[in-house]
Design a protein that fits this description.
22% helix, elongated, binds zinc ion
């Protein structure tokens, strides 16, 4: 896999950009995701503005395969997104709690951008994601419908309970 390391100390002043292409392997590392296939072009543009200040623009375009929330079959998710952040080398502690600037310890020689790229892509996935109406797998929908009906039957366990029988008699 391509390295997403940004060489903070040796980066020339001015702007430069690097391009990457992400496949499914990028999303199946230490923290696996529900992405089963991917074809995403990433452009990272970095501008070194001073000894310690950098401006970064990530542009991610492409598509992913993720399971549909309704039928669980793979569905295609298209993305086209840009994320911009400033980076400043300062102090000794990494601070990513600010909105527009990422503080990186002064002593660091490089910054791994892979987590940022990953988050930028994954954040484009809506919380609820489903096939367009009518495009879910009909067999899966039928199967899921049966499972749901079974679950309801299991919950309906008042039948045969003597207390309920007594109550029913009172109601009659
Ligand atoms: Zn579906």
């Amino acid at each position: 896999m391509a390295s997403f390391k940004l060489n903070l100390k040796t980066l020339p002043f001015g702007s430069q950009s690097v391009n990457y292409r992400l496949g499914a392997d990028f999303f199946s590392g230490d923290e696996p995701t529900e992405v089963s296939a991917a074809d995403v072009d990433v452009e990272i543009e970095v501008t070194r503005k001073s000894e310690r200040d950098y401006a970064l623009t990530l542009t991610c375009r492409g598509k992913l395969s993720i399971p549909c929330d309704r039928c669980l079959e793979p569905m295609e998710h298209t993305l086209d997104t840009t994320y911009q952040v400033n980076i400043r080398q300062e102090g000794e502690v990494l601070d990513d709690s600010r909105d527009t600037v990422l503080i990186v310890p002064e002593a660091w020689h490089e910054l791994d951008l892979a987590p940022m790229v990953r988050d930028t892509v994954l954040l484009t996935i809506p919380i609820m994601h489903t096939h367009a109406p009518g495009e879910c797998n009909p067999q899966m929908m039928e199967r899921l419908g049966e499972l749901e009906a079974d679950a309801h039957d299991d919950n309906d366990n008042t039948a045969g309970d003597p207390r309920w029988d007594a109550l029913r008699k009172l109601m009659e």
